[in-house]
Specification:
The complex is a heterodimer of chains A (339) and B (85). With 339 residues, chain A is α+β, with helices and mostly antiparallel strands. Chain A is built from ten helices and seven strands. In chain A, helix 2 packs antiparallel against helix 9, helix 5 (122-138) crosses helix 6 and helix 9 packs antiparallel against helix 10 (316-332). Chain B has one domain. The chains are: A alpha+beta (339), B mainly alpha (85).
């Protein structure tokens, strides 16, 4: 072999050895990293000498860290509204509320109490629609608008002359039954639904964006006309279907009153292709945290019980009962607001 | 855990009864979120004092245990409070 050939072979051998050494080094680094993660996880979950025979997650600093993570993730979920691209693809709202169901269930409650059913009135419905649109346009959630407009202003502007009038509001409900049940649970809202002096009603169910999140606003107006035979109502809204209206385009009611609407719900359900509502996302994350804590508590009790180690710590059983109760309430918690 | 339960039967009976009552009120007061929030604060505060009193009675109270109960009460309270926002 010539010197050149020897040099070439040596250089080839050296390169191969370096590559093998590099591979061994990275495999070693990975094994070291994996061992460190395992040690940290074990320190967090398994009672051992390094964590004073109590899972680190259950120490007071672990609990406070979890609380901070909780607040951070909650703030992140609430801030998704400021990122429209993410907001509309991940978060959304679906509801099966429509005018027919609201009127039917309201009348069902009235009939149960021996009251006469309410008749759907066009002008009251136009007033309800105008109110819903005003809430979206001016971004408020209240009976009185920021400019001081009361519900009666909307009713008067629709051309309805009332002897007595009332208003119920609802938002963020998925089911009509839940919404009506929420109204019936509230003395003032129940008072409106069951008031024997009301003869007619108007309902608007409008989808839009309030406080940065998609929602469905429901406005129900109640009234009795000044002149009993002046207003003609209809029992159901099946004949006239509301046409969807593009945002910022005015539609004109029969009374020449202009009403702007971003989306008028046709009779039927609103279906949304988004994955979760903010409430669902929050619930999922909170329940995951609770599950982690409960499992850690149970494992901690099991390990220490077997080892028969004495220690001065809080009662694991008490904590398990507390977090189980919290999980139960979280699962049963319903969204929705009424005013 | 079974031993803990039998050692402090009365304490756990009070705890479970109180949580059952406030849990029922929490669900029944829907959708009044302000009332629900008061109940959450009440539940968290009750649990903190329940833990302290239980440990004082069994003569096993330390600063660490007090802080642990404070942390757990705050965490549980936060979980329910934030959901009402």
């Amino acid at each position: 072999m010539t010197k050149l050939q020897v040099d070439k072979s040596l250089s080839f051998l050296h390169n191969n050895l370096s590559m093998a050494a590099r591979k061994r080094k990275s495999a070693h680094k990975f094994r070291k990293f994996f061992r460190r993660c395992k040690r940290q996880a074990s320190h967090l979950i398994v009672p051992q000498r390094s964590n004073n025979h109590r899972s680190k997650l259950l120490h007071s600093d672990g609990i406070f860290c979890l609380a901070i993570i909780l607040i951070g993730v909650f703030a992140l979920i609430q801030s998704i509204r400021f990122f429209p691209g993410i907001n509309y693809s991940v978060l959304g709202f679906s509801s099966d509320i429509n005018i027919e169901k609201v009127v039917a269930q309201t009348n069902q409650q009235r009939l149960k109490a021996g009251q006469k059913p309410l008749v759907l009135n066009d002008k009251l419905t136009a007033a309800a629609l105008a109110k819903a649109q005003d809430m979206y346009d001016n971004q408020y959630w209240s009976h009185t608008s920021p400019k001081g407009r009361e519900p009666w202003d909307f009713i008067q502007e629709s051309g309805y002359t009332y002897k007595i009038a009332g208003e119920n509001l609802a938002r963020d409900f998925h089911l009509t039954t839940e919404m009506v049940q929420a109204w019936m649970n509230s003395p003032t809202h129940r008072g409106n639904i069951m008031n024997e002096r009301y003869e007619q009603t108007g309902v608007a169910v409008v989808e839009g964006i309030l406080d940065g999140f998609e929602t469905v606003l429901v406005v129900q107006m109640f009234g009795s006309p000044q002149v009993a035979t002046a207003q003609l109502g209809r029992k159901a809204a099946t004949e006239e279907r509301y046409q969807p209206v593009v945002k910022d385009k005015a539609s004109v009611t029969g009374l020449g009153q202009e009403v702007l609407a971003s989306a008028i719900v046709p009779v039927g359900s609103i279906k949304n292709s988004a994955v979760f509502t903010p409430l669902q996302l929050t619930k999922i994350f909170f329940l995951a945290i609770i599950l982690l804590i409960i499992l850690t508590l149970l494992y901690d009790s099991f390990v220490i019980g077997n080892r028969k180690t004495m220690r001065m710590v809080g009662e694991n059983l008490g904590h398990v009962i507390l977090f189980s109760g919290v999980a139960f309430l979280l699962i049963l918690f319903k969204g929705g607001m009424i005013k | 855990m079974k031993e803990e339960l039998f050692k402090h039967k009365l304490a756990y009976f009070i705890l479970i009864s109180f949580f059952s009552l406030t849990g029922f009120l929490f669900l029944a007061s829907w959708p009044d979120i302000y009332y629900q929030r008061y109940l959450v604060v009440l539940m968290a505060t009750f649990y903190f004092f329940w833990g302290i009193v239980t440990h004082v009675k069994s003569k096993k109270i330390t600063k660490k245990i007090t802080i642990e109960y404070l942390g757990v009460s705050v965490l549980a309270g936060l979980l329910l409070f934030l959901i009402t926002i």
